[in-house]
Amino acid sequence: MYTNNATLPTAIAAANQGEYQLRITVQQWVEVLVDCPGMTGLLTYGLPSELEVKPGDILSVPLNAQTVGGIAIRILTIPPEDVPIAKIRNIEDVVSSGFFPGFYWELLNRVAAYYYTPLIQVIRVALPPGLLGKSQRRIRLISAHNTSLSSSLSISLSSAAQKILDLLKAQPTGNYSFIYLQRQVRNAHRGVRELRRLGLIETYLETPRATKPKLQKAVILIGNSTGQDLTVRQTEILEVLRRRGGEMWQTELLQVCSTSSSVIKILEKKGYVVLEDKEILRTDTSGNSEQIFTTGQVKNLTPAQQTALETINNLDRYASILLHGVTGSGKTEVYLQAIAPLLQKGKSALILVPEIGLTPQLTDRFRAKFGHKVKVYHSALSDGERYDTWRQMLAGEPQVVIGTRSAVFAPLPNLGIIILDEEHDSSFKQDSPVPTYHARTVAIWRAELENCPLILGSATPSLESWVNVGGSGEMGRQGEGEMGRQGEGEMGRQGEGEMGRQGEGVEEEELLPNAQLNPKSKIQNPKFYYLSLPERVNSRPLPPVEIVDMRSELKQGNRSIFSNALQQGLQELIETGGQGILFIHRRGHSTFVSCRSCGYVMECPHCDVSLSYHQPEAGAAQVLRCHYCNYATPHPKNCPECGSPYLKFFGSGTQRVAQELAKQFPELRFIRFDSDTTRNKGAHRTLLTRFAQGEAHLLIGTQMLTKGLDLPQVTLVGVVSADGLLHLSDYRANERAFQTLTQVAGRAGRGEDPGRVIIQTYTTEHPVIQAVQQHDYHSFIQEELAQREALNYPPLGRLILLRLSSLDDQQVENTATEIAEKLQQQSEIDVLGPAPASILRVANRYRWQILLKFAPQDLPQLPDWDEIRQLCPNSVSLTIDIDPLNIM
């Protein structure tokens, strides 16, 4: 028998002198979904009488010899008949209560079903980190005195044992998790067993450390009277407390009054104050004191903006809206004015952006208008900040949450609108770990469940979104909106077939749905709206795009990485004090390092890629780094192969471009803005603030510069080499190149001064380059869709990518071949492969892939993925990527 929130009866016994109440304790049990690899069912645990548990609570439970996290699914008053009561263990503790709103379970189950991922994996991605804590097995060297013993045994050790020993010795604490060693060393379990037998290592369980509220001492004033036993100093402290409302954090009070904690303890002993541990919220408050980009004033809207806003405000139900506006057309202002009336109605808003680098600018603009109702949620926050922000969302107050991909799971009750800014960006798709979800797809499902509008904003919409609105809208049509196609394309077809059969009902229960079921709801396919913003605000023109043929530059004797036109533009920035952006496809200094004597190329020992040369700040060591596994090694003075000192750097990254700028334009001040310079927390905001305040002429960076930055003072945009975006073995290469170049070009001329864009390329005749020069989205999209249709690629076809990897190159190849042969038995599926990944080895793991292609209108019966997984030995990992964006 199942029950939720069971109430226990009270027995009343009669006696001569009155009544005595006797509470009868009834044993209860709980079914728990545990966080353990390979465990997909529910386990039954006992409920200690001192703990109160409700469905959805996060628990700490014993499992074999370790402690793991789990989710309470439902309460039982009778244990399962097939499990002896004596063998049922009690839960250990309640980590967090009330972390799952009611609608949440249907959303999480839908993600698990569509992306073929265990529900607990989806929950792990959705929750703040640290909540599902679990103990882990760790390996460590016993003591330093065993070093001599291990040296004498090194000749007789097996290969696995020797590799593990070397890894532990290289680690300062001599300590690694067993999971990490398994990933690095083949047959790690045998090596560990061997080293334990020899007494060189020991294994132990590290207990989980769950994220909890942060407590801090607060000083609270008792009463308003003062006695004769107070010194002058003590009286002053009490007066400060009184003026501050009678309560202050102890650290703040000590700082304001320049006193010590011993004085506060004396006041506590005298009975004038009490000290209490109170929770202090860890939230991202950066940028609250100074809005460096914009103010909170309501701006006048263009006619196109007004039409779009009215259409959005008139929607009180689910609808998917493509807001297609050129760069600088004021999409963010439409978002702001659409959200304002929702907050007044007590509803909340969720805004998703593709990059953490965008959140400071958006946060400043939204906080200027909505103040402290704005919360930020992304992976750069600390675990404690994400935990506290999550709980603030659950409070139910109307608020605005701005975040990256994972914020699509933010538990905002009473959600009034969801916005995906730069919806075309591939950062919204997760490649690893599983689930390999796309935030746009999940946002559609969530908007359906919440029955609220979803806005997809972009200057270069994805082909999927374009097809959904009919693919025939013109930029000049204002608010014609409702398109006739019902649920077509990738986004709308989530309700069809086995991959997304979400439209079938399931009986509702007064408890959380069984984790082994796939709850599906009867949700009508939506109508899609197309809203256009065809002009920039204040009638500013789009910047002219100048295409420079670098072949001609070379013929004219210019061997610099900067064309004559770009050099002229940079010189003008120095003379006028203007500002510009320089876009480079790659970070680092050089793409690879090669010996000019023998041709040897410095390669990563763990991956099948060349090492990139990185030159840190002046005086620091020169480093060669792998951009895939992060392996780093000092730059050698001589070739490791032939000993020649003639090593040459090839290719240009942000560091190389910055170095060349310093040589050619010593008066030009610049700031690098890439993943190397934004590693530290708050670095995005710091660098953008410096640039906005005029500390540099030029902002040099990679893809982050293309994603929605609004810098009105920028008049020049230069693209050092567009060719690195064009010639890739990926069917989406042209689409990505067009979007990237159009977006970075759109950073110019957003203020009062006109803009100028210079794109350097060796293939000026390429159709993408031509379309970017003309700002011609429609011609490009029509040509690209025709090619996709001919080849049956998304959005007019469907793809599933199977990624296999292993430390054993032969085993992963054999497994991929076996799986492909199994899949080829289904004639309606086009099986491409198996084939090695474009980079076969990454972090010592060999990678193979199989691509499944089929038409969406007649979705085939897809394989039984459990059977496919059973074909993989333990040493081979399999990832099923639904609707992959990256197939390289």
Short description:
With 888 residues, the chain is an alpha/beta fold. It is 29% helix and 23% strand. It contains 26 helices and 35 strands.
Characteristic key phrases:
single chain; 888 residues; alpha/beta; seven-stranded parallel beta sheet; six-stranded parallel beta sheet; 26 helices; disordered N terminus
Mean pLDDT: 81
Tell me the distance between the termini.
Answer: 51 Å
Low-confidence stretches: 1-24, 288-295, 472-526
Percentage beta strand: 15-25%
Count every helix, treating DSSP H or I runs of 4 or more residues as helices. 26
Largest sheet descriptor: 7 strands, parallel
Structural class computed from helices and strand pairing:
alpha/beta
What overall form do the CA principal axes indicate? globular
Quantity of strands, as a count: 35
Helicity range? 25-40%
User: C-alpha Rg, in Å?
Assistant: 31 Å
**If strands are numbered along the chain, what order do they take across the biggest sheet?**
16-17-15-18-19-14-20
